Amino acid sequence: AQSVSQHNHHVILSEAASLELGCNYSYGGTVNLFWYVQYPGQHLQLLLKYFSGDPLVKGIKGFEAEFIKSKFSFNLRKPSVQWSDTAEYFCAVNDRTNAGKSTFGDGTTLTVKP
Amino acid sequence: NAGVTQTPKFQVLKTGQSMTLQCAQDMNHEYMSWYRQDPGMGLRLIHYSVGAGITDQGEVPNGYNVSRSTTEDFPLRLLSAAPSQTSVYFCASRDTGNEKLFFGSGTQLSVL
Fold first, then answer.
1. pLDDT digits (tens, 9 = 90+) for A36-79
2. Nearest-Cα residue of chain B relative to residue A47
3. What is the chain B residue with the closest CA to A31?
């Protein structure tokens, strides 16, 4: 069964600091990879996705992620965080050979101090 | 442009009571799913469906039933609620191109 592991449960940064959130998945088949964000009091929304091609993908609000196939990783990055980035971030994997079943990581809570 | 609609938004149950969480989408998505979100545990898949008449179990299916009689609706039933089912429940749908999930606004359920 596929699984998704997020390395950090809670990250605290000051504004303008750089961000990297780790995500590893364990599955040998073909997958699509996603990062979702959940702002306080809201439901999840898509930040970015990777299906194929260039392993460096760019999403909304200055976020990007790099797919490293050999490491089964899909880490999220942002060069300079803002207070408004305070949210919970989820990495997710769609199993393309199993009806596209979506599995999420445990989430990382990011707190950005002004 | 409703998207994914979940009802109710809040619910309090007593142990042993039953209830149904409703989920409807108007995007003609084949794939629908139910997740529960608990602190520190992310989103865990309860049940999912790849089309009308087809359902399958996710990671944490025990205590929950689902059915998919139409493409639009995917209700989640708790037959005998337990305190361990206190959680926030999200319904999500997706088109067949394996694109992003569209989430409902969630149901906050407390079982006393």
1. 999 988 888 899 999 889 999 999 999 999 999 899 999 999 99
2. B100
3. B98
